[in-house]
């Protein structure tokens, strides 16, 4: 069950800068994730002019570009979107682990929140369902998580 982070609004989000990195492998899924992420940013009051979108080949490249952008500290948050679907071998498991570890390392070493919207699914149908235009959209939730983390990281203690 997801807890709402919609009420966290201590930062002026009109000046907030966000990068969306979207893997293009499985575009039927990643396009839905991107719609969800964009919707969440709009609802949060992030100006469209402050959202930069970077299409890359797949989830591995999402992690590489996230590391590069996080080091540059140009963005207040980065949203990583992609889809890894199980195949006949264990390739998906190795890829998912490498991508997740890379994104976590980038986030913790840079201090830039990175919303993880990389779907891992056993079937293509599961991946499509997680990118649907509804409240279960993982791109939408990746934005909400990154915004909430940014708010917590910048609270006055």
TrEMBL record:
GO terms for molecular function: 6,7-dimethyl-8-ribityllumazine synthase activity. GO terms for cellular component: cytosol; riboflavin synthase complex. (2S)-2-hydroxy-3-oxobutyl phosphate binds at residues 88-89, 130. 5-amino-6-(D-ribitylamino)uracil binds at residues 25, 59-61, 83-85, 116. GO terms for biological process: riboflavin biosynthetic process. The keyword Transcription does not apply. The keyword Transferase applies. Pathway: Cofactor biosynthesis; riboflavin biosynthesis; riboflavin from 2-hydroxy-3-oxobutyl phosphate and 5-amino-6-(D-ribitylamino)uracil: step 1/2. InterPro entries: LS (IPR034964), LS/RS (IPR002180), LS/RS_sf (IPR036467). Its EC number is 2.5.1.78. It catalyses: (2S)-2-hydroxy-3-oxobutyl phosphate + 5-amino-6-(D-ribitylamino)uracil = 6,7-dimethyl-8-(1-D-ribityl)lumazine + phosphate + 2 H2O + H(+). The active site is at 91 (proton donor). It comes from the Bacteria. Keywords: Riboflavin biosynthesis, Transferase. Belongs to the DMRL synthase family. Catalyzes the formation of 6,7-dimethyl-8-ribityllumazine by condensation of 5-amino-6-(D-ribitylamino)uracil with 3,4-dihydroxy-2-butanone 4-phosphate. This is the penultimate step in the biosynthesis of riboflavin. This is 6,7-dimethyl-8-ribityllumazine synthase. The gene is ribH.
């Amino acid at each position: 069950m997801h807890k709402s982070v919609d009420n966290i609004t201590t930062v002026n989000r009109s000046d907030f800068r966000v990068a969306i990195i979207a893997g293009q492998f499985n575009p039927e899924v990643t396009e839905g994730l991107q719609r969800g992420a964009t919707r969440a940013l709009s609802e949060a009051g992030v100006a469209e002019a402050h959202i930069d979108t970077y299409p890359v080949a797949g989830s591995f490249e999402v992690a590489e570009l996230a590391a590069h952008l996080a080091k540059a500290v140009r963005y207040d948050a980065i949203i990583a979107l992609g889809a890894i679907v199980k195949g006949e071998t264990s390739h998906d498991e190795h890829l998912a682990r490498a991508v997740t570890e890379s994104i976590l390392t980038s986030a913790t070493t840079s201090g830039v929140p990175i919303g993880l919207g990389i779907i891992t699914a056993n079937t293509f149908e599961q991946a499509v369902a997680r990118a649907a235009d509804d409240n279960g959209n993982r791109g939408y939730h990746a934005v909400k998580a990154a915004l909430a983390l940014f708010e917590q990281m910048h609270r006055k203690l």
